Amino acid sequence: MTRIAPPPPAAMKGAGMTSQRARDRLIERLRIGGIKDEAVLEVMGALPRHLFIDEALASRAYEDTALPIGMGQTISQPYVVALMTQSLRGIAGIDKVLEIGTGSGYQAAVLAKLFKEVFTIERIDELLRMARKRFRQLGLNIRSKHDDGNIGWPEYAPFDAVIATAARESIDPRLLDQVRIGGIVVAPIGPPGQQTLVRMTRGAEGWSRESLGAVSFVPWVKGVA
Ligand code: SAH
Q: Could you tell me the distance, in angstroms and rounded to a whole number, from the CA of residue 42 to the centre of ligand 1?
């Protein structure tokens, strides 16, 4: 295994547009926007989002906006990351979380700071490689695989929660089957331009569903690249 040196402390800390002050301003915005979970705010206030995007865009890392990460994909808007993470908390016994759509790795990194075990699947190899490098640099314990998220990760199932960061019209039953009774799925559902963030809870008798608001995610795509 190759060892990767952590980024120099100055790069982690950031300066100017990537400084702690810029992060604090973002957290204030999230708070005003209605994010109430202090642990989520604390984690996002400490995590260097600028290390998850290309250096050329680093100055925009703490704007509350999605940004391109290459291969036609985006790092999710911080507000949406906060909302999705918050919607997994406050439910008893959520320890083991599976994310579909690693992308930059930022959402997985936020999850890893708050939940015991985090798994993530990405269909685009090049993005996954970069995300893995960031996980190592930041010392994050996240299991990842290059695969089509539709299949889930049966070897590690059941999961307490599945979170999808790409949108589709419905969730594959193979994936739903990997959620334990009492577990949840948080995912953007619907066609482009008409997506709703939903939280589905698996009861003994079936699934219940609540809406968390309108969102805009990249589409869920079949197969690997
Ligand atoms: N969570 C990411 C968001 C990335 S955008 C972040 O924090 O940066 C959504 C990602 O989902 C893209 O990288 C896209 O390649 C991936 N994706 C789309 N369909 C997928 C599928 N079927 N399986 C796994 N990943 C998928």
A: 25
